[in-house]
Design brief:
With 337 residues, this protein is an alpha/beta fold. It folds into 2 domains: 2-167 and 313-332, Rossmann fold; 169-302, 3-Layer(aba) Sandwich (Rossmann fold), CATH 3.40.50. It has 13 helices and 14 strands. It has helices spanning 13-26, 67-73, 76-85, 100-109, 118-122, 135-143, 169-172, 191-198, 230-236, 248-255, 269-281, 291-302, 315-332; strands at 2-8, 30-36, 50-52, 93-97, 113-117, 149-153, 162-163, 181-185, 204-209, 216-218, 221-225, 240-243, 259-262, 284-285. Strands 3-2-1-4-5-6-7 form a 7-stranded parallel beta sheet, with helices on both faces. The protein has a 7-stranded mixed beta sheet with strand order 10-11-9-8-12-13-14, with helices on both faces.
């Protein structure tokens, strides 16, 4: 079987999940990889057949999506050219991890596309939803990646087609210890803001920032560049994790039994839905990172971890569901002699 696996390259979470998922997927057929977007700091260890510009969201300096920069970065004619040029008809199965070029190519050419992503679980009926309206965010998550069927990953199996997170092998085999530092991973905030904020919080913090090119130390703060092997070690040995309300990193922190505090980015519908799901698990959620919430963060730093997370390995089940769905869709198509 010839498979196209298309991955959204905005942020590190999609690529991190794809790296863990690809070996299992490759056992089912010959896999070509497509990556679109340019906002990830991770390198992909396998050959990439198609590298597309796609549609990319741009983060603001203090969290959230920078709407103006995002709109400015959209190149509609280039996107349409990439959609029409992608030969999805050459594949037996197209799997999209919230990747729009492949999904729209399939829609316009009448090819079956199955979405395998966290976003598929976020918008599923039965998954936790933010009480905030977010009309643009809701529209995007429903229309960004059109597909015939959706299989999702979430913190818990909220629906029939929702499965527990994929945890990469390095985390599965790790032996976590409680160190003396708190890991901070808030890539939508710039290093100047993070330095000003955390310098007034007691404790020792290792802060990973896209603005930093080499390790820099400021009193109780150690700033580290993204994309280094030290991040995994700092995660495994952290006494707590402060991060956005994304998916992969909070899931890994929960798996490692790390105390977790998340800050959903402003104007980010998916992260606010994730925050609701994490609140159900007992995770601390802050909606702002400023003077008004600094005392709450300090209180969290002094608390013990009270969350007990029970994870199950659903990787094979999720892949089975994708291939079963693909077969069901093929069987439903009438054969014309």
């Amino acid at each position: 079987m010839k498979i196209l696996y298309a991955i959204q390259g905005t942020g590190n979470g999609h690529l991190s999940r794809a790296i863990a998922l690809l070996p299992t997927l490759s056992q089912r057929g010959e896999v070509d990889v497509l990556i679109s977007g340019n906002q990830s700091q991770l390198s992909f260890p396998s050959p990439i057949r198609y590298q597309c510009y796609g549609l990319t969201f741009v983060s603001s300096a203090k969290g959230g999506i920078d709407i103006l920069k995002t709109i400015k970065g959209i190149k509609p004619l280039r996107f349409l050219k990439e959609v029409w040029a992608l030969p999805v008809e050459d594949y037996d199965l197209v799997i999209s991890d919230f990747e729009p070029v492949s999904a729209w190519a399939c829609k316009l050419k009448g090819i079956t596309c199955i979405e395998l992503s966290h976003q598929a679980a976020v918008r599923a009926v039965g998954s936790p939803q933010t009480p905030l309206w977010f009309p643009v965010g809701r529209w995007i998550i429903r229309n960004y990646c059109p597909s015939k069927l959706r299989v999702g990953f979430h913190f818990e199996a909220f629906t029939e087609n929702t499965f527990y997170p994929i945890i990469r092998q390095e985390i599965l085999s790790a032996k976590p210890v409680q160190g003396t530092h708190t890991l901070v991973y808030l890539t939508a905030f710039n290093s100047s803001f993070l330095k000003s904020f955390f310098s007034e919080v007691p404790g020792r913090f290792k802060i990973y920032s896209k603005d930093i090119k080499q390790i820099e130390t400021f009193e109780n703060l150690v700033f580290c560049p993204l994309g280094t092997d030290d991040f995994l070690t700092d995660l495994i040995t952290a006494n707590g994790v402060i991060c956005g309300a994304g998916f992969e990193l909070p899931a890994e922190a929960l798996f490692l039994n790390k105390k977790l505090l998340v800050i959903p980015y402003a104007n980010h519908f998916e992260q606010h839905c994730n925050a609701q799901a994490l609140k159900q698990l007992g995770v601390r959620v802050l909606f702002e990172l400023d003077k008004s919430t600094q005392e709450h963060l300090i209180t969290w730093c002094l608390e013990e971890n009270s969350v007990e997370y029970r994870w199950a390995n659903h990787l094979e089940l999720a892949i089975d569901r994708v291939f079963d769905a693909a077969q069901d869709l093929r069987d439903a198509i009438p054969i014309i002699d």
